[in-house]
Amino acid sequence: MREIAAALVTEAVKKMTMEAGVRLEPDILAGLAQARDRETSSLAKNILDLLLVNADIAGREKIPVCQDTGVAVVFIELGQEVRIRGELGEAVQQGVQAGYQDGYLRKSVCDPITRVNTGTNTPAVLHVELVPGDKLKISVLPKGCGSENMSGLTMLPPSAGIGGMQDFVVRQAVNAGPNPCPPLLIGVGMGGTFEKAALLAKKALIRPLGQPHPRADVAALEAEILTRINEQGQGVQGLGGNNTALAVHIDLFPSHIASLPVAVNIQCHAHRHKEIVL
Prior knowledge:
single chain; alpha/beta; CATH 3.30.1330; 2 domains; four-stranded mixed β-sheet; 8 helices
């Protein structure tokens, strides 16, 4: 049994939270550059150039890449041969609080009824999964709500099939218009239950941008939906062009014979994510 001190978790989460707020990962920067190179609209191409300039300034000057520094969503894969010395959940919350405080990131978390700000950007949303091994993997996804608000979930009848699933995903992305600050990353959860589909869609966002699903039929479906979304012409920031979305990521889970849950979690162009393995 391998032991990891909770203090190490706190420090890792703090560092990732601060970094995620100001520095986009290489896969996102490459995706934006590729979108610029294939863009057909001169206006959209210029905006993509500006987004890349903004990301560069944010990284160099260590200032937030977006004023909406998001709700911290933290995924943990906890090896079954790992013992945390201390309280894991509290360690994560302390790391998020310290990261937003010391990184001078806007605190956006509030009570859903009174709307009183917690002042710490906590509690973070935490998902813990037990996996084989003696490692602890932590992924931090600060989720802005301009894009989060455009997400959706439907409980389709199985008779709707793949066509109905595609139609829902495309409609959700296109109807979002400029609100989620496209170009977008579209996370899709298919199957499971009501809550499982939503979690699948969220977790699909942390897959490296554009990395296809390991199942060939699912990868083909991702590519087909991406093409359909971009053919609609909403484009960068909703101002037209052929880059409404950068990628579609689908995750699956077996579902009941009488149900076909489908969730769409939309992410903006400032797709902030970090991960570490302890």
